[in-house]
Write a structure and sequence with these properties.
single chain; alpha+beta; DNA Primase, Chain A; DNA primase DNAg catalytic core, N-terminal domain; Dna Topoisomerase Vi A Subunit, Chain: A, domain 2; 5 domains; six-stranded mixed beta sheet; five-stranded antiparallel beta sheet; 17 strands; 48% helix
Length: 581
């Protein structure tokens, strides 16, 4: 069995937009992406992908699901094969647990996100109780409004403050979530103490980790991040991106700075499109995430040696993700300033003028390579070419690569043809791989896949699945009827279940199910495949139920709503607003 915790980690690592875009070229459409549906023939795009919800949905044929569901349906893979395919993409190894029906289900650590959110609420409440922490933020020029927007909090100085929040302080979830540390002697204590707390959100707006900044300048380290967890990988996340998405779209650019306080301070001055890497250099994953929001990314660094080193590392890491439509630039502030101090001294207008005058990537690369090289002698030019070659090898965007090569050849006093013959550079005239043609929807839907597994193992049907297996569509009816019959006949053969389904579901649906039953791969792990389909269907129906509930409550006059309905409307409405942000 594949552990549930690994599947959750995998879904947090992969982006459904990236997964689908590899097979179906997507176009930006507001907060979402669109394309003509790959599962049925259409002329106008009705297939949408939501980077916030991490779901795809076709309004034409009803295809709907997560990254796992797309890989299963588009490529015709089993659940296990889809997991393995996505894990390879994310650089993960799929763990396995031995399934023994005689033993209880394997222990799964749950509640990581809930624990992190609970801790965030606690830190926010503690900030209001700490005049010292409030004075520190005021001294940095932050208003209560901005602090509230970024959900800034404070972790008190004692060793086990979270014990008052979590009755089960010894819970494994707290250590896996990075909230509690256990030393070699088995003593447990809070990871964050006497620090200003900055919650880190994923693309859904959920708290997945924290950054803690010292108040006392003598304490070290200055910044302390959550460790890597199933929910949080610092090389994949950007601080402030969830809150900055709308501002990035409005401004047409994203600004990448070095620290939490830079992001928050810039927002205080109306520059709300800033994000920060989380204690690591900018990675290709970061660049790809930002490319989903804008075509222009500006990196802002201090003008000292450390800033120049960080900028070069960011530039090199960005090369594999570079496209011809993306503009990358670098802004270096005076040595005595960081973004926080600069915007306070000179204001928003001056800072944005500096952003617009930022150095383009190609210029930065050439400046860096020639900074300590006069290019006067043959040996100088050979060294210049040797240093430029690995950089040019990484750039696959044809136009960007061609212009950089021409400039490098010019500085080395060679023709482009001479340089190409000397260096091992990728062929820019290679015929692009065509996207896979649209399919007619012959792949097995998640509903039918689930029912197919039940036909083979009816004893695995669960009565609680009937709660979310509701709807009037053919596949919804098939799902509900199959579960009900399997509950009545848990030890019957597939032919018996099929006979019972006759007259209860549409004949065409039953015929397709029967055809798939005849060609079913006998090597499939039915238990694991069924559980995988169940997880996918649960996500689909949960999303559908929330959308329906919100629509129903929204139609009622506000004065007639009960207290529970008001609370629910506010909760779902906030979630919907965040998804559109």
């Amino acid at each position: 069995m594949i552990p549930e915790s690994f599947i959750q980690e995998l879904l947090n690592r992969v982006d459904v937009v990236d997964v689908i875009d590899k097979s179906v070229p997507l176009k930006k459409a507001g907060a979402n992406y669109s394309a003509c549906c790959p599962f049925h023939n259409e002329k106008s795009p009705s297939f949408t992908v939501s980077p916030t919800k991490q779901f795809y949905h076709c309004f034409g044929c009803g295809a709907h699901g997560t990254a796992i569901g797309f890989v299963m349906e588009y490529q015709g893979l089993s659940f296990v094969e889809a997991i393995q395919d996505l894990a390879k993409m994310a650089g993960l190894t799929v763990p396995q647990e031995t399934y023994d029906p005689a033993k209880p289900a394997p222990k799964v650590v749950v509640g990581l996100q809930e624990s992190l959110q609970q801790a965030a609420n606690y830190y926010k409440a503690e900030l209001k109780k700490s005049p010292r922490a409030i004075d520190y933020l005021k001294a940095r020029g932050l208003s209560g409004q901005v602090a509230a927007k970024f959900q800034i909090g404070y972790a008190p100085a004692a060793w086990q403050n979270l014990q008052s929040v979590f009755p089960h302080y010894e819970s494994e979830a707290l250590t896996i979530a990075g909230l509690v540390v256990e030393n070699d002697q088995g003593r447990r204590y809070d990871r964050f103490r006497d620090r200003i707390m900055f919650p880190i959100h994923d693309q859904k707006g959920q708290v997945i980790g924290f950054g803690g900044r010292v108040i006392n300048p003598e304490d070290t380290p200055k910044y302390y991040n959550s460790p890597e967890t199933p929910l949080f990988q610092k090389g994949h996340e950007l601080y402030g991106l969830f809150l900055a998405r709308r501002a990035i779209r409005d401004a047409g650019r994203a600004l990448v700075v070095e620290g939490y306080m830079d992001v928050v301070a810039l927002a205080q001055f109306g520059i709300e499109y800033a994000v920060a890497a989380l204690g690591t250099a900018t990675t290709p994953f970061h660049i790809t995430k930002l490319m989903r929001q804008t075509d222009e990314v500006v990196f802002c660094f201090d003008g000292d040696n450390a800033g120049l080193t960080a900028a070069w590392r960011a530039a090199m890491n960005a090369l594999p993700a570079l496209t011809d439509g993306l503009k990358l630039s670098f802004l270096f502030l005076p040595k005595e300033h960081d973004p926080d101090s600069y915007v306070r001294e000179f204001g928003k207008e001056k800072f944005e003028l500096e952003i617009k005058a930022a150095m383009p990537l190609s210029q930065f690369i050439l400046k860096h390579l020639s900074e300590n090289n006069s290019l006067q002698s043959q040996e100088d030019r050979v060294r210049f070419l040797n240093e430029a070659e690995p950089i040019m090898q990484q750039i696959t965007a044809p136009r960007s690569a061609m212009f950089l090569r021409k400039k490098v050849a010019e500085l080395a006093q060679l023709s482009p043809e001479e340089m190409q013959s000397l260096l091992k550079l990728p062929n820019l005239n290679k015929t692009p791989v065509n996207a896979r043609p649209k399919l007619t929807r012959t792949t097995l839907s998640m509903h039918k896949r689930y029912c197919l597994m039940l036909l083979m193992q009816p004893a695995l049907a669960l009565r609680e699945d009937l709660v979310w297996a509701e709807g009037r569509a053919d596949e919804d009816v098939l799902l509900q009827q199959t579960i009900e019959i399997c509950l009545i006949h848990p030890h019957s053969k597939p032919v018996v279940i099929m006979r019972e389904l006759e007259g209860r579901v549409e004949a065409k649906v039953l015929a397709e199910l029967e055809r798939e039953l005849n060609i079913l791969d006998e090597t499939l792990d039915l238990v694991q495949e069924l559980e995988g389909a169940r997880r996918q269907l649960y996500d689909v129906y949960t999303q559908r139920k929330e959308d329906l509930l919100l629509a129903q409550i929204s139609e009622k006059p506000l004065s007639t709503l009960t207290e529970n309905e008001r609370t629910l409307l506010k909760s779902l409405g906030n979630k919907r607003s965040q998804n559109r942000a």
